[in-house]
């Protein structure tokens, strides 16, 4: 019993993993209204790539997102995408050509060819598929096919493994008996960067990628006027046994796709370039040369505008630096003046404070001197008063005696000359008595304040 349960569990697990690997069929999703499909892709700008923010972008990525919205709107289907990145174009190709995988899509910018239709299905073409031969600058632009073949003899051809363009290079080498080696590299955008660092090398570039890089000024490569290839178009790949081509073709034929595709393509390719590519005939080299000339002329004008803008910016920068420098000089001068004024005021304040301290010290000294002199004068006045008082009192007793003696003498009989002497003595004593009384009155009576 346990063995049966384990076997059943393993069987269910295998079925589940198988379904997860293969993805859901459209018939099942349409019935159950939900399902999961696998989308295999690799770095191949502008068809599918991750940007600087590590966000998956690209024309085919956005087309598949529009396809999901279309199914949800028309069939109310909740479709889940599982994005699986592969390292090379050939790995994506092998995933799609595996017919055991039903719910699988390949996003690699596939070229639609009759040979590939035998191995896989395609969506309708969403863009013309034209490839041009480009070379490094040390291989000149040839004036004839034979001159080109001589120039690439001994050179290195670069291409992504498993692509139609690899087969074209092999065919070119074998049919024309040209001796060059083939080296595998990444997709178109990577090929541009590789060629920019190489010498004596060449390879095929998708015309949209070439014109896009030329329009953005990315490439300095020589485009050769021979061996230009045109295929049915670019499409999204599916396994032969897949039934997802039915709703995919329906979406491509819908009005929603027309609106979505214009918006998608405009986000990656100049619409003027896109319309030119859609109508381009590989035999019309003059038309392509004129388009390149137009692009280069536009690039030259843009460079001139950019140079003028840079010149104006530099002029504005110089003016700004000059104005800022002048302003800084003015600020420095004003600051120095203010600092000098502040220092002068500070010095004047210090001088005034010193003078004030000196004046206060002088005032304090004068006040002390005045107080000292006042005390000395008071002491002297007091001593003088005491002296005057003592003197006046001491003089009064002898003077009284003199006046008494004069009075007694005056009562005696005297001669005339004696009377004159006694009279003079009496007058002098009286005058002296008046002086003593005046002094005593001055001492006894305080001075009256003046009104």
Give your account of this protein's structure.
The protein is of the alpha/beta class. It has a domain at 2-283: Periplasmic binding protein-like II (D-Maltodextrin-Binding Protein, domain 2, 3-Layer(aba) Sandwich), CATH 3.40.190.10. It has 14 helices and twelve strands. The strands form two sheets. Strands 1, 4, 5, 6, 7, 8, 9, 10, 11 and 12 form a ten-stranded mixed sheet that branches. A two-stranded antiparallel ribbon has the order 2-3. Helix 3 (59-75) packs antiparallel against helix 11. Mean pLDDT is 82; it is low at 3-20 and 298-303.
Low-confidence stretches: 3-20, 298-303
**What's the shape?**
rod-shaped
Instruction: State the distance separating the first and last CA atoms.
Output: 145 Å
Q: Using only CA atoms, what is the Rg?
A: 62 Å
Provide the fold topology.
Blueprint: H1 2-22, H2 26-32, E1 34-41, E2 49-50, E3 56-57, H3 59-75, E4 78-85, H4 89-97, E5 104-111, H5 114-117, E6 121-122, E7 127-135, H6 145-152, E8 156-159, H7 164-176, E9 181-184, H8 188-196, E10 201-206, H9 207-215, E11 222-223, E12 229-238, H10 245-252, H11 255-266, H12 271-279, H13 285-410, H14 416-444
Parallel strand pairs: 1-4, 1-5, 8-9, 8-10
Antiparallel strand pairs: 2-3, 5-12, 6-12, 7-10, 7-11, 7-12
């Amino acid at each position: 019993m346990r063995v049966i349960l384990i076997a059943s569990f393993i069987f269910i697990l295998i079925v589940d993993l198988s379904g997860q690997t293969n993805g859901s069929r459209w018939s099942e999703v349409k019935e159950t209204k939900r399902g999961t499909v696998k989308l295999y892709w690799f770095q191949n700008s502008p068809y599918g790539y991750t940007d600087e923010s590590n966000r998956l972008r690209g024309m085919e990525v956005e087309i598949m997102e529009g396809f999901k919205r279309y199914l949800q709107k028309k069939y109310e289907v909740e479709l889940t995408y599982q994005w699986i990145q592969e390292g090379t174009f050939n790995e994506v190709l092998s995933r799609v050509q595996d017919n055991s995988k039903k719910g699988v899509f390949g996003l690699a910018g596939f070229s639609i060819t009759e040979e590939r239709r035998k191995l896989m299905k395609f969506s309708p073409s969403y863009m013309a598929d034209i490839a041009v031969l480009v070379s490094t600058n040390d291989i000149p632009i040839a004036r004839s096919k034979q001159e080109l073949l001589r120039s690439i003899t001994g050179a290195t051809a670069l291409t992504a493994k498993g692509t139609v363009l690899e087969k074209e290079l092999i065919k070119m080498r074998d049919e024309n008996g040209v001796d060059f080696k083939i080296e595998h590299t990444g997709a178109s955008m990577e090929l541009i960067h590789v060629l920019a660092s190489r010498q004596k090398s060449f390879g095929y570039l998708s015309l949209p990628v070439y014109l896009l890089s030329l329009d953005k000024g990315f490439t300095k490569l020589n485009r050769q006027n021979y061996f230009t290839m045109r295929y049915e178009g670019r499409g999204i790949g599916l396994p032969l046994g897949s039934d997802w081509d039915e709703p995919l073709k329906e979406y491509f034929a819908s009005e929603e796709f027309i609106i979505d595709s214009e918006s998608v393509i405009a986000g990656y390719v100049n619409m003027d370039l896109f319309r030119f590519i859609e109508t381009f005939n590989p035999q019309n080299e003059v038309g392509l040369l004129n388009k390149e000339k137009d692009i280069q002329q536009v690039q030259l004008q843009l460079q001139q505008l950019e140079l003028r803008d840079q010149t104006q910016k530099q002029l504005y920068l110089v003016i700004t630096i000059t104005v800022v420098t002048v302003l800084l000089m003015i600020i420095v001068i004003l600051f120095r003046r203010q600092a000098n004024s502040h220092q002068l005021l500070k010095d004047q304040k210090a001088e005034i404070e010193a003078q004030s301290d000196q004046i206060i010290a002088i005032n304090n000294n004068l006040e002390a001197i005045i107080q000292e002199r006042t005390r000395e004068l008071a002491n002297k006045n007091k001593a003088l008063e005491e002296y005057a008082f003592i003197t006046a009192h001491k003089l009064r007793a002898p003077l009284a005696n003199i006046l008494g003696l004069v009075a007694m003498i005056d009562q005696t009989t005297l001669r005339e000359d004696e009377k004159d002497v006694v009279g003079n003595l009496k007058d002098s004593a009286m005058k002296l008595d008046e002086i003593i009384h005046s002094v005593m009155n001055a001492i006894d009576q305080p001075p009256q304040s003046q009104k």
